[in-house]
């Protein structure tokens, strides 16, 4: 397993640890979750850089990298819903999960036809927007543990979630347009 793929696997471990830290519901757990989330984001950037610069991109990496991203983002959103101080809409998280399942199905159809669909530019933008939004949500959660924050600050995660939903479904539409032939050929 090359270094880029090892970093992807590390990101999965960091994402699981972040989820567990968020579920702990303590100051230390929330600070640890923020640190683990940021560490996972750094490994995401580094593994892509390493794969491109060493020309070690692999089919495994094309599949595992987006899966690691999904575990990180969805794990954070699901665990953050638990915190009632943050206004994260359940419907928004559901729509993000639905989008990920739908695109996972498209990737499976492509694989059944011998094609590997790697993340495209709009998927990378989606991940970037979601990563910044979740980092801000975690920062608000941690800040709320150590200081009295105005009620409107706890409302910010609602708007960040709506932004994540919009970007996710826009990227899904673009992904569908790119993959339309694969989908239609599977209807047979």
């Amino acid at each position: 397993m090359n270094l880029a793929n090892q970093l992807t696997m590390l990101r999965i471990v960091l994402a699981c640890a972040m989820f567990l830290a968020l579920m702990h519901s303590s100051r230390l757990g929330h600070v640890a979750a923020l640190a683990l989330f940021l560490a996972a984001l750094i490994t995401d950037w580094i593994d892509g850089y390493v794969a491109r610069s060493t020309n070690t991109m692999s089919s495994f990496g094309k599949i595992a990298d987006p899966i690691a991203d999904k575990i990180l983002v969805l794990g954070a959103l699901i665990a953050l819903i638990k915190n009632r101080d943050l206004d994260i809409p359940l419907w928004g998280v559901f729509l993000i999960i639905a989008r990920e399942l739908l695109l996972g199905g498209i990737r499976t159809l492509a694989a059944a036809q011998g094609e590997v669909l790697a993340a495209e530019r709009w998927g990378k933008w989606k991940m970037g927007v979601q990563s910044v939004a979740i980092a801000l949500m975690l920062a608000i959660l941690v800040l709320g543990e150590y200081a009295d924050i105005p009620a409107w600050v706890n409302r910010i995660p609602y708007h960040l979630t709506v932004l994540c939903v919009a970007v996710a479904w826009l990227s899904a539409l673009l992904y569908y347009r790119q993959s339309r032939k694969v989908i239609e050929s599977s209807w047979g």
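The CA atoms of residues 78 and 116 lie 28 Å apart. The longest helix spans residues 151-187.
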